[in-house]
Amino acid sequence: MPSTSVRFPTVKVYDHPLIQHKLTILRDRRTGHEQFRVLLNQIAGLMAYEVSRNLPVRTLAVETPVARTTGTELASPTTIVPILRAGLAMMDGLLALFPEARVGHIGIYRDEKTAKPVTYYAKLPPDIADGPAIVVDPMLATGGSAAHAVDILKERGVRDIRMMCLVAAPEGVEALVRAHPELPIHVAAIDERLNERFYIVPGLGDAGDRIFGTQ
Ligand code: PRP
Ligand code: URA
């Protein structure tokens, strides 16, 4: 079970040894993009179990080879929404556990000078509001990209929105909580701070570059 952050009650921190072990390898500057992608997907899969814990279900009858009984199934279609680019690298891990999920894409990059989010793409299921949405991005730095992605989903009428990320800065968590106080935020680590270039310290560097080998 993740622990609830003392400072931010809507934030769950995944202090599980397996997740922290893999995260430490991701932080290591010597870790190359191939291993980075594998580990990031593995962590996403481990976190998915808790992120999906209270998804709405409905009961249904099922015939086993022995008897008729009552089971449950997911009540509404879930949409996973990776923020491009880096969020894409958590999708294989999530879809392995969640093959029936739909995938909506939101493209956002940070302006290099201002660190303000710039949206360049959004392709979402037209009926996305009919079920929960899980926004996925490994990095929550200023919180601008995540807050903006949640704005887009709210504009489309989505009511059950969950945020899943790997490493967050306290400044980013605070900003996201301020913008969306009801939003559950799932994170593997809350680091020390942002630096003057709005990078997370200690963080793991530029996630997109490390995932795709573009640095
Ligand atoms: C990174 C990261 C987040 C964003 C976080 O993306 O994947 O989307 O920065 O920063 P914020 O909390 O300050 O908004 P980036 O802008 O580097 O784009 P990329 O994934 O296309 O490289
Ligand atoms: N985006 C990243 O990929 N890393 C950071 O530390 C901040 C924003």
Task: Please characterize this protein's 3D structure.
The chain is an alpha/beta fold and 215 residues long. It has one domain (3-212): Rossmann fold (3-Layer(aba) Sandwich). 30% of the residues lie in helices and 30% in strands. The chain is built from six helices and 14 strands. The protein has helices spanning 17-27, 33-51, 91-97, 144-155, 170-179, 207-212; strands at residues 3-4, 11-13, 57-63, 68-74, 79-84, 102-103, 105-110, 117-123, 133-136, 139-140, 161-168, 185-190, 193-194, 200-201. Strands 1, 2, 5, 6, 7, 8, 9, 10, 11 and 12 form a ten-stranded mixed beta sheet that branches. It has a two-stranded antiparallel ribbon with strand order 3-4. Helix 2 (33-51) packs across helix 3. The termini are far apart. The relative contact order is 0.17. The mean pLDDT is 96. The chain binds 1-O-pyrophosphono-5-O-phosphono-alpha-D-ribofuranose and uracil.
Question: How are the SSEs ordered, and which strands pair?
Answer:
Elements: E1 3-4, E2 11-13, H1 17-27, H2 33-51, E3 57-63, E4 68-74, E5 79-84, H3 91-97, E6 102-103, E7 105-110, E8 117-123, E9 133-136, E10 139-140, H4 144-155, E11 161-168, H5 170-179, E12 185-190, E13 193-194, E14 200-201, H6 207-212
Parallel strand pairs: 2-12, 5-6, 5-7, 5-9, 9-11, 10-11, 11-12
Antiparallel strand pairs: 1-2, 3-4, 7-8, 13-14
Helix pairs in contact: 1-2, 2-3
Task: Describe the structure concisely.
The chain has helices at 17-27, 33-51, 91-97, 144-155, 170-179, 207-212, and strands at residues 3-4, 11-13, 57-63, 68-74, 79-84, 102-103, 105-110, 117-123, 133-136, 139-140, 161-168, 185-190, 193-194, 200-201.
